[in-house]
Amino acid sequence: MTQNTDRNEQLFERAKQLIPGGVNSPVRAFRAVGGTPRFVARAQGAYFWDANGKRHIDYIGSWGPMILGHGHPAVVEAVQKAVLEGFSYGAPTEREVELAEEIVSLVPSIEMVRLVSSGTEAAMSAIRLARGATGRSKLIKFEGCYHGHADALLVKAGSGLATFGNPTSAGVPPEVVQHTLVLEYNNLAQLEEAFVLHGADLACLIIEPIAGNMNFVRASVPFMKRCRELCTQHGALLVFDEVMTGFRVALGGAQSIYAKSIPGFKPDLSVLGKVIGGGMPLAAFGGPRSVMEQLAPLGPVYQAGTLSGNPVATACGLATLKQIRKAGFFDALALRTRTLVDGLKAAAAEQSVPLSADCEGGMFGFFLLPQLPQNYPQVMKSDGARFNQLFHGLLDRGIYIAPALYEAGFVSAAHSDADLAETIAAAKEVFRTMPALS
Prior knowledge:
Strand order of the largest sheet: 4-14-13-12-9-5-8
Shape: globular
Oligomer: single chain
Mean pLDDT: 95
Helix content: 25-40%
Number of strands: 18
Structural class: alpha/beta
Low-confidence stretches: none
Strand content: 15-25%
Largest sheet: 7 strands, mixed
């Protein structure tokens, strides 16, 4: 297809005249990898078709929510029924209660939950709640973890542990991030020192237990255990950002995986999103009753949202959770994901291309590095040029992975053995074209 008849190119040119960068979320712009974004016309199962009508095997799945694949019949039916009843009311509904009951039944650390519309909103509100509940202002986050685009979280490390962070975005005043301390992920020494210096002033520590915005990096069990111990010791709340991992890596989220290795482990607050909405704008945060009752209208911490608990979104989320609760669902999903990851590693090894990879449940990541990184500086050593070659090679062959080196990928229940085999074969072809390391 010539450029003149490339609908993706035509749509991108139109979009750039009206939308900054031509996209409504930066990573969609292909700035990191070059080229023209694919404009999706429709999606079904494990596939989407772009504006040119080309089919792609989809490994981003709306960045995680589509755990069942696109257009699952039971979910579509639930949404269609809900739409006929009304789009939005600004008043309570029974489905909000049902979804809250479902979340509380699946996540033992959550006794009460508040529904919101986005992961950013949920993380921002959880931090405000932690500050209100503790009467403290300071917080710890980790380099490479993303908790949405609230001002106080768009921050990079300061010059040392005695100093707080610096804004990473224009428009964020330095005084807004003056209470945010940024540490290196999986660095026990920094963690210990930070609590020695600031423990009495810390409201919370917020962490992605598996960091999906560094591609896929796990917090080690000793590191997570020490996060829990130090928060307990100093009276800070441990906040788990499970927007990506919640109901994606396991039915009980990443916290259920750590609980297998750390007796009695649970976070104080959990931030959820993506899968619980099934593709609709829906997120949540929750925790013990004693903390959650600090929220308005019961307590002094204000949080509100016109579309919170939207009746169509809750119908979509409930139908999705009903499917993933079925016996054997996560075993089958994890096997699919492991098959893909092992196949990619073997394909790279055949061509002597350094590649490390990891996965949990339906979430995976890989690095063009010989060993899995443990933190952001190590992640940054991944071979960007080779990744771009891999991305475009796969894209040309109808395989769609995240258009950025530092984003996790997602497998759905709709991906077939044939889809996985096609993906691995395509990767093998691309690896074969890569020049030898100098």
